[in-house]
Amino acid sequence: MLAYNAEAIPEGIALRDARRQLTRAELLHEIQARAERWRASGKTCLAVLCDGSLDCLCAILSASAAGLQVALLDENVPEDALPGLLAYVEADEFWGAELLEHDVAPYLTRGVRKPAGLLFFTSGTTQASKAVVLTEASLCASAWNGNELLPLDRTDTLLCALPLNHVFGFVCGVLWGLQAGATVALCGGPRRLSADLQRFRPTAVSVVPTLLGFLLQHCELPPELNLVLVGAGNCPEPLIQAAGSRGLRVAVGYGLTETSSGVALSPVGNSNAMELCPEAEARIAEDGEILIHAPTCMMQGYYKKPEDTAAVLHDGLLHTGDLGALDELARLRVTGRKKEMLVLTDGTKIYLPEYEESLAALLGTNELAVALRNGRPVLLLSEAEADKKELMNRLAPVMERLPRGQQLTDILILHRPLPRTATGKIKRWTLTQLMEELT
């Protein structure tokens, strides 16, 4: 992909950040030169603390080109978690040491040659993250699929405002633009978003729903910006409407780390009618689960977890854990998560997205989550000061419509934000421990 664009438009700007920029010819040359040094080094696995810079991206691309395994880590990962992560991926080289307070060299291992691949940690909200093994081929195929449904061209500038360690950010924030021959501008992080919008004057940007809300509320939008791709979570309709009122075209995408990002996309901001990408097929299981067949974009598996791989991927079908439906035109609608539901002791189920949305509407905040305590639903609410009795009264219109077993039995007040993943999803697997700490 890089070689093709370097030959077709050698002087076109491929990448920019606040410090420098590279033409397509310069980018290819830098990647090739770095790759030669990686090959000569004898290293086998590079762990990258992804700070979103141009140099960081070049390290990833060149190490992959040299045949190294590349593990992409969140730059905000707690330092005490790094030894375990580095041992898990068997890293013998590390990028980003200057971002840390302590030396990680003692935790690097002598590498054994591994199949080339890029390891992306899932942002799963129902269990601890796993490393998904993707390839250059699957990632580029995903970028090509997205550009077929939502094309960019050489006149566009795509602002990458998402973490590179998240597959949505890597594919839809970088590879989508590079594949299309557009310029990719690397944002210096959420705090720099407003300034970088004015610096780079992008025509397109990829965001998660929470970032779209921040962009609309706090940022001055350049007149060049006309396209916003929203993914990695359900985007509330009011946000889409607000973006449209600002003159933005909103596209909504659906994908998974396991499919190298995009599976379906709606270029008109309608998450109830998403077209499947050219090389993806979807089926709906009897229980409503979405099953995906996407051979060119599918993961190689979960790293060192063959049992987990076999549990979700068999007969060429990925069992996504998402619930959905296909309309008469084979367009996909995602309705929720199988695992984003609570199963009560009487066998009835609470589908959390709908349940929590109704509570959020009454309380005027999305900083809440519902979990089970002793088999009954309780509300965790991130508030500095709140009166439980008053809150229960405000929630009465919803509670009165629910069966008694589905009604909230308590409200637990947090004095800090809810634990969330890099894409803004609640880390549901941590809520049990959080409740224990509160009680």
Number of strands: 25
Q: What is the residue-averaged pLDDT?
A: 90
Radius of gyration: 22 Å
Query: Numbering strands along the chain, what is their spatial order in the largest sheet?
Result: 2-1-9-8-10-11-12-13-14
Gross morphology is globular
Query: What distance separates the N and C termini?
Result: 55 Å
Helix content: 25-40%
- Strand percentage, roughly? 25-35%
Number of helices: 13
Main sheet?
Answer: 9 strands, mixed
Which segments are poorly predicted (pLDDT under 50) over 5 or more consecutive residues?
A: none
Query: Strand pairing plus helix content: what structural class?
Result: alpha/beta
Structure explained in plain terms:
The chain has 13 helices and 25 strands. It is an alpha/beta fold. Helix 2 (24-41) crosses helix 3 (54-65) and helix 5 crosses helix 6 (167-180). The chain is globular. The mean pLDDT is 90.
Brief rundown of the structure:
The protein is α/β, with parallel strands linked by helices and 439 residues long. Helices cover 32% and strands 26% of the residues.
Provide key terms for this protein:
single chain, 439 residues, alpha/beta, nine-stranded mixed β-sheet, six-stranded mixed β-sheet, 13 helices, 25 strands
Secondary-structure topology with pairs:
Blueprint lengths: L1 H7 L4 E4 L4 E3 H18 L3 E6 L3 H12 L3 E6 L7 H8 L3 E3 L21 E5 L9 E4 L1 H14 L7 E4 L6 H14 L2 E4 L6 H8 L3 E4 L1 H10 L8 E4 L6 H9 L3 E8 L4 E6 L8 E2 L4 E4 L4 E5 L7 E2 L3 H7 E2 L2 E10 L5 E6 L3 E3 L5 E3 H12 L4 E6 L2 E7 L5 H12 L10 E5 L16 H8 L1
Parallel strand pairs: 1-9, 3-4, 3-5, 4-6, 8-9, 8-10, 10-11, 11-12, 24-25
Antiparallel strand pairs: 1-2, 6-7, 7-17, 12-13, 13-14, 15-16, 16-19, 18-19, 19-20, 21-22, 23-24
Helix pairs in contact: 1-2, 2-3, 5-6, 11-12
